[in-house]
Each structure stands twice: as structure tokens, then as C-alpha cells.
Amino acid sequence: MARPIRVAAIIKVTENCNYNCDFCFYAKKHYDWKKTMTIDMCKDIIRKTSDYNYANGVKKSNIIFHGGEPLIRGVDFFQEMMDFEQEIMTEYPDRTFDNTIQTNASLVDSNWIAFFKKYNFNVGISLDGDGELNYHYATENDENNIEHIISVYHSMDDAGINVGILSVITEKHSKDTERFYDFIVNNGIKKIAILPCINDISNYTIKVQALSNFMTELFDLYFYGTYRVTIREFTNVIERALGYTQVRSCANCGRMSCGTFLTYDSQGNIFFCDKAYDKERIIANISQVNIEDIFDNPKYCKERSQCMNFYNTTCLNCPIKNLCNGSCYRNDVIIASGEITNRFCDVYKIVYPYIEEAVKKLKENS
Ligand code: SF4
Ligand code: SF4
Ligand code: SF4
């Protein structure tokens, strides 16, 4: 199997979290993984990622710090990682790093903001909306501090940090799309990504009809409204409808990025993209392999083949392939017949042509 030229590391520096969201695999203890990564292991992943990329002529490595809630490791942990990256860059002056963090932002204060600014972090803030829509801190540690998180978002934006909101969309959202849109507008959010909730164990996976309704209604509010916001999933489709083929984010990337994102749980177990909640899917452990070993590993090859086979057999024959481009492998699921399907195809087949039509009409009238 051809090896990717570059890899990105999604590092779960801890699986612990100060919240207890209803749909969370970790908070609901579906897995006994509430653990913390050692400093040496985190450095090992950063070093091996950079070495692999550099050996392929890629100077910049993307490091994505994830959890659980990564900030509970404290700023000293991240300072140590930044110092370590600096050591690598001193040793190899043409290497660089692009650091991202996904956080619930509850622990962010002015020190964290200064830190993220200094090291040019991209920051994703997990927030699902307000009131009933928000699952964060729903059941424990309920400080109802949405105001704090929104003020963190604005402080970061004002400081010039690349920051966006990531919202997990559940059935509740589909019943109150307007509230979700008002949440965006009333809080002055400029950049947001929407991620359909998938959690079959707790029965939280959003249903096809609910997601279709939500996306169609949200699109109308967004496209015909006067408030300017980037909603990643719509921007991707609008660009495709306008004939642009350049992909700006990995969701709906046509599976071109699938297999290049490697997730490491707190114990160093390696997973294909971020399906890091299923022990059956562990490929290997970073303490025992180098990155190049991963691509010959039968479990990696099986995931990659599954991912691309669906694209080559189903997506290439799909009437909306130019708009959807294969969606995201995370949404693939094995159905009763044993076949693999993408659980949200029926959503895309409704929503994406609807977006295309709206774009077409706008073009005709302008
Ligand atoms: S904030 Fe994230 S990691 Fe923490 S409980 Fe909620 S979904 Fe899980
Ligand atoms: S599985 Fe989804 S999130 Fe992961 S690289 Fe592929 S498209 Fe991106
Ligand atoms: S709708 Fe489904 S089959 Fe069609 S391109 Fe998207 S993921 Fe592939």
C-alpha cells in the first residue's frame, strides 16, 4: 500500500475531562481509558511525526492536541512540548510545526490566551449551542458558563488567534435549528463547524431525517440571512457547487486525507484517524514502532482499504459525488448485510443538491 507523504498527529494527552457530556465516550465510561499520557510519550510522537514528514520532504508537521480535555494537563505540559518542538527546529532549522488544540475552553484564562498567541496555535472550542442545546457540563460541574466560553472565543479572536467553534449536532438541534442559528448570531461567532453526533452505544447518533432537517433549515438561515459566518460544511459544498475543487478542510475531503491523520490515545495506541474509542481498532503502539511501520500493518491496511473501497465502488457512481466527494470515513458503518455504507449518504443526497440549487439561483439572479 502506498505510504502517505505526510502525516498529522492527533494526540490525546489525557482522556480525563472536567465535564461529563451525555454523548461522550470517555465521560460515560464506555472504555476504561481515563488516563494521562506521559511527557516522554508525547515528545516521542512529535519527534516521530516530524522525522517521518521530513524524510518525505515535508518540513511542516501538524500536531493536534486532543482529549478528554487537554487543558487539564496545565500550561507547563504544553510549554514543555513547545520547548521540545523548538529543540527539533534548532537541530533542523527548516522544520516547523503547526499546533492545534481542541478544548472545551472552560479553563482558559488570559495566561492560556497569551500562550496560544505566542505559539500561534489554532484553537477549536467545543460548544454545541446554548441552553438545552449544549451538552457540555450538562450533568456535572454545571457552572453554566457559556458566557465565559464566548468571552474566551472573542478574546482569542481579538488577539488574532485562529479560533473556531465546533458543535456536535444531536436530535435536540434538529428540533430547534433557529435557536442554534440565533446562538451563532447573538454571540457574534464568525467561524463554526458542525459535526453530526455519532455514539451508537449511548444511542445518541443523530438520525438521518433529523440531520437533513437541521442542515436544510440551518442552510436557509445562513444563506438567506444577513449575518456573515463561515459554516465549514456549507462552505465546502458551496465551493464545489461553484466548481472549485480545492479542499480546505479534511471533512468531506474525498477521503484524500484519510489515513494521514493518526490518533494516539493516552497510552500511545495508534488509530486510523480519530476512531480512537474502539480497542479492536488499535493498530500498534508508538513506543514499539516508527511511523513508517504503521503503513504495512495489516490493521492499518484493512482500514485504508475499507475507506477507499467505498469511495471507488460507491462514491464514484454516486450522482452527487462532485458535491460530496466521498464524505468522511468516520461516518462509515457496517450494515446488516455485511456491506459498508456511509450512514449519512441520505442526508447529503438531500442537502447538497439543495445547496447547489440555491447557489445556481443566486448566480442566475446576480
Ligand atoms: S468536553 Fe469533550 S471530552 Fe469532555 S466530557 Fe464533553 S465531549 Fe467528553
Ligand atoms: S476520516 Fe474523516 S476526519 Fe478523518 S481524515 Fe478522513 S475525512 Fe478527515
Ligand atoms: S453521498 Fe455517499 S455515496 Fe455519494 S459521494 Fe457522498 S458518501 Fe459517497
Count of DSSP H/I helices: 12
CATH architecture descriptor: Alpha-Beta Barrel
Helix and strand pattern: EHEHEHEHEHHEHEHEEHHHEEH
Q: Provide the list of bound ligands, each named once.
A: iron/sulfur cluster
CATH homologous superfamily assignment: Aldolase class I
* Secondary-structure content class: alpha/beta
Record field, number of beta strands: 11
List keywords for this structure.
366 residues, alpha/beta, 39% helix, 15% strand, binds iron/sulfur cluster
Provide a short characterization of the protein structure:
The protein has 366 residues and is α/β, with parallel strands linked by helices. The chain contains twelve helices and eleven strands.
Q: Care to describe what's here?
A:
With 366 residues, the chain is α/β, with parallel strands linked by helices. The protein has a single domain, classed as TIM Barrel (Alpha-Beta Barrel). The protein has twelve helices and eleven strands. The chain has helices spanning 39-55, 74-91, 110-118, 146-158, 171-175, 177-186, 208-224, 232-241, 291-294, 298-313, 321-324, 345-365; strands spanning 8-12, 60-66, 96-103, 122-126, 162-169, 191-196, 230-231, 261-264, 270-272, 332-334, 340-342. Strand 3, helix 3 and strand 4 (122-126) form a beta-alpha-beta unit. Helix 6 (177-186) crosses helix 7, helix 7 runs parallel beside helix 12 and helix 8 (232-241) packs across helix 12. The longest helix is centred in the last third of the chain and has 21 residues, at 345-365. The protein is globular and about 55 Å long. It binds iron/sulfur cluster (3 copies). Residues 250-251, 253, 255, 257-258, 261, 273, 328-330 line the site of one iron/sulfur cluster (SF4).
